[in-house]
Amino acid sequence: MTSPISSLPVQAEQQGSNDPSKDGRPTQTLDRWVGAACIVVALVATSAVLHKYELGWADQSRLWAATVGTILVPGWLIVRRVPLGHAVVRIGAAFVTGLGAQLFGWALAVRLHLPWLQWIVPLVFAGLIAGAMALLRGRFGRQDEPADGSRGEAHDEADGRRRAAPARMPWWASLGLLFSWVLFLRSLTAGLWSITPLGGTMRWYPDMYWHTAITANAMHHVPPNDPQSLADGVLDYHWFSNAHAAGLTIASGVQLEKAAVVFWYVPAVASMLLLVYGLAAYLSRSAAGGLVAAALSVLAPSVLLVRGIDPGASSVAYWLSPSNTLALPVAVLATFVLCMVLRANERRPDMLAFTIYVLLLCPGSKVSLLPTLLSGVGLVTIVTIVAVIRRRAVWHDMVRPVSLLTVGAAIVVSTRPLFAGGGGGSTIEPGATARRSRIWTASLATDPPPGSVTLALLVAAFVGTYLAVTLVAATVGGSRDPAPVLYLGMMVAALLAMFLIEHPSLSQVYFMRGIVPVTAAFLGWGAIAVVRRLIGMLGARRAPALIAVCAVTGAWIGEFTQSTSAMQQKEPLLQLSWLLPMVVVLFVTSVMTVILLLRRDRISVVVGAVLAFSILGFAVAPTAHALAQDPIPQWHTGGVARGTHLNQDEIRGAAALARANLNASPMATNVHCSRIRTTPRCDPRAFWPAALTRSPAFIGAWAYTASGRASGTASVSYTQQPYYDQRAYALNESVFRAPTARSVAALRAYGVRFLYADRRASAVSADLARYAAVIWRSPTVTVYELR
């Protein structure tokens, strides 16, 4: 029977994971039964949580059927011959690869107004992709091992190439994955579903309405249009998450919000978790490495000295950005296949084609993802060129990285007009992320502001994340393995973006946030490498005991710091000068850890391991503390406290318009401002009318529109910009306040068919009934259809 400890040495892992005959049938049976039981428990727990948040059993069944039929089955047809290790890892990959098939089916179903195509087209598409890969593999490939990776590949320690992912999942790994999944459910509950209830009048975080409105528009338009400004036309944003939710809604027939706000997160996050496990198991050749990575994907490490300095780029648990959530499993699979292709010794054109297919999914998932990945490929290319010059490699070793870099760059350039609009307004501004932190804002009263300290603190907040490079350093001393070089290039690009780019809404943090699960996988790999070295020096009993003591001690210290006054921000200006020495200590400790782990003598390795696992334990404390405290985002509770709830009239009126406007014709509304009342220089992020009415707005809430970014007033925040076309805005407002036959006709000429009039936003003239038919009325809201 295998255990986490016995699987750590390389020889034991090769026997225990890749050659089942060595462990005997009883162990295999136990692994299978425990794995099956864990899957059942995970499904039951997930179903119970979804039911609590207003997703009934019938709706869940229809959504699961749509997910399996339009995503997982097509995706499985594509990945079934890709050597990704255990079957559950392939299921995670099937979700990502199936997205391409589902989106193709969505496009045809919406374009041709034939919903049944959403079920048929993905299977045909996947069959064509799988057939093309089989053709490439059969005619041009050269394979020396089974495509399913069931046998261990020969491993060359000199260059780290040709590693197989473990094809077995031990029983303890199944239990560990179940534990990680329960924590993810906890995170989703606290950070998303509890603050975006489908019933009642509680206001959501504005971006969730914005995405829901795009999803509603994607039910009728390919590509989706901007639902907040009719004049903006096609939406230039990474909208794959919205199209994915629209495809699920079309295939299942359930209420749009149930698919777009609740359900689709479950398979997406589960896919990410399984792929993180698979990538770390592949890199470390150990199920234990996958288990560590799975835990760190939910307990994301970040050395957080002061809560106000954390920009939120060190955790995957930012569920209020659907596009970032969808990008997480895409990022892990893309890194996975890039590592496989760059490491391969044999010719595998089918894997190269599969990698390009996965890269094509990146820009529409999150536009910042592919440039980050290509930075890693670019660094691999540079290292390879240097090796060729120094005659440590041959010229054809450059073919794969150069080909991937060229194709990836072509994808970035060609897809930019479709997906890169969200980056509008970005400028080069070193240190901008630090200046946008809460502690910087609180420090503006001081003279001078502590800029250097703040910047140093921000770096310290990511020391836990950088620890991945620290630990992996132990595995790559003098080797030619391209995997750590790939990750190092990705991390450098993310850091440069974090510290050099300023985006109006702080979106530069997504360069780092998008690779957090990849960091977890590399942390798992590095941690297992260190443990293996310690076992070789201290033995299989003392080494794990030492590691456990260090990690627990670090976690205890980290938990203690979470309750201090500085962490709770009871004294936001609490002697910032004392924090600078702490930053220096952390930096020096990290550098010492790298140096010690790169050495080969016993004392250096032991001391380096003690430092590394102590920091790692300290770094997971902030996330564990947050999960234990059931956090509610500060921005949401603040909005509720200021009385920005919707009332029943507004919700029912929106539902009435949605029922009357099944073709999603444009509507006009007088609601634009976050606090509902329309005032000059208000925050134009009232995205909820377009979302709840399922109708694109003539002029809705324009804060995120492309026209607003292109023509905004200089030095004025995007949350205070006026609408770019003041004549159109005046026409919109006059129809509600003082309608005339001429103004109503002008609005009708723009294609507007319905009006959503809210008396909490502005006065609504009784004369409107002369020019439009009332289809729903209440004391607060009246819905009209223009004659």
List keywords for this structure.
single chain; 787 residues; mainly alpha; four-stranded mixed beta sheet; two-stranded antiparallel sheet; 34 helices
Description:
By secondary structure, the protein is mainly α. Helix content is 61%, strand content 3%. The chain is built from 34 helices and 6 strands. It has helices at 10-18, 25-52, 57-79, 87-112, 117-139, 171-191, 206-218, 240-252, 256-263, 265-284, 287-298, 322-343, 349-360, 362-365, 369-389, 399-419, 432-435, 438-443, 451-461, 463-472, 482-500, 510-513, 516-538, 542-562, 565-568, 579-598, 602-628, 634-641, 648-660, 688-693, 706-711, 726-737, 741-749, 768-771; strands spanning 427-428, 501-502, 667-669, 754-758, 772-777, 781-786. The strands form 2 sheets. It has a 4-stranded mixed β-sheet with strand order 3-4-6-5, with helices on both faces. α12 (322-343) packs antiparallel against α13 (349-360) and α12 runs antiparallel to α21 (482-500). The radius of gyration is 27 Å and the shape is globular.
Largest sheet: 4 strands, mixed
Tally of separate helices? 34
Q: What would you call the shape?
A: globular
Give the overall pLDDT as a whole number.
Answer: 82
- Separation, N- and C-terminal Cα atoms: 76 Å
Radius of gyration: 27 Å
State the low-pLDDT regions, or none. Answer: 9-23, 143-162, 570-575, 631-643
Give a count of the beta strands, DSSP E runs of length 2 or more. 6
* Structural class based on helices, strands and sheet pairing: mainly alpha
Helix content: 55-70%
| Beta-strand percentage range | under 5%
Strand arrangement within the widest β-sheet reads: 3-4-6-5
